[in-house]
Every structure is written in structure tokens, then in C-alpha cells.
From TrEMBL:
SUPFAM superfamilies: CheY-like (SSF52172). It comes from Dyadobacter beijingensis. This is Response regulator. Residues 6-129 form the Response regulatory domain. Gene3D superfamilies: 3.40.50.2300.
């Protein structure tokens, strides 16, 4: 397992954060997760830890107070760590226009419906951009 990954769960709903954290663990993810209640908290965390040689996987809600998911995506565009950020949008929005808007940001690698499930967590960790950070569940 590679230690160069940090997972941030960003959502203003504490129950959703708990569920997503639980489902990640049950899908075989052994990394600690950092909980952020809005985009500004996530941005502050990244800014404070930008010197780390770490890839950040961010599971990002869209509708939050203080700084929503769209504002967060715009805010990280000019950050020096941008190339080390992979984002999965996690939203209750089902409109295709929302998905298209999300994928217009280069750091967005996936768009998942809320709430995540163990199966959707497994799909996320098996994505081409993240595969190297997780043990291959099929090889066990």
C-alpha cells in the first residue's frame, strides 16, 4: 500500500460524512480520512499541507454553506498542489448538466450519487487514476 494518499470527505451533513467514512472502510480503504464541513475547511487543510508529497483524494459535496463545491473547484485552480488533487463529486443532484459541469474541471475524476455505497466506493478506488494507491481486491 502506498502512503502517499490523503482522503478528504467534504460535506456539511455529519450523517453523510459518517456513512461515507464507514463505507470507505468497508470497501477496503485503510487510509485515515479528514472530515471537512465545507469547501473552505478543505481548502484551508490543503493550503496548510501543500508541502506534503501527497496525493489528495477529495470526495466533494456540491451544496454546502460557506464555500460550496463549485467555489472550491474554482479556488484550487491556481494552487501549487493542483496536480496532486483528484476529486470525486458526491451529490444528490441527478441532472446531466451538473455532471457535465463537474467534468469540465480537470481534477474531477468521477461523479457519484449520494449517498455512496460500498459498491460505489469500490468503483472509486479502482479508477485508473487511483488504482496504484489501493491494494487490488481481486488479487487477494
Amino acid at each position: 500500500m502506498n502512503d502517499g494518499l490523503k482522503i478528504l470527505l467534504v460535506d456539511d451533513d455529519k450523517i453523510m460524512l459518517f456513512l461515507h467514512q464507514t463505507f470507505l472502510k468497508r470497501s477496503g480503504v485503510s487510509y485515515d480520512t479528514v472530515l471537512c464541513y465545507n469547501g473552505q475547511e478543505a481548502l484551508d487543510y490543503l493550503d496548510m499541507n501543500e508541502a506534503m508529497a501527497t496525493t489528495f483524494l477529495i470526495l466533494l459535496d456540491i451544496n454546502m454553506p460557506v464555500m460550496n463545491g463549485w467555489e472550491f473547484l474554482r479556488a484550487i485552480r491556481d494552487r501549487p498542489y493542483l496536480s496532486r488533487v483528484q476529486i470525486v463529486m458526491v451529490s444528490s443532484a441527478t441532472e446531466e448538466t451538473e455532471k457535465a459541469r463537474a467534468f469540465a474541471f480537470g481534477q474531477v475524476i468521477d461523479y457519484q450519487q449520494k449517498p455512496l455505497t460500498i459498491e460505489s466506493c469500490r468503483r472509486i478506488i479502482s479508477s485508473d487514476k487511483l488504482r496504484g494507491f489501493f491494494d487490488d481486491p481481486l488479487s487477494q
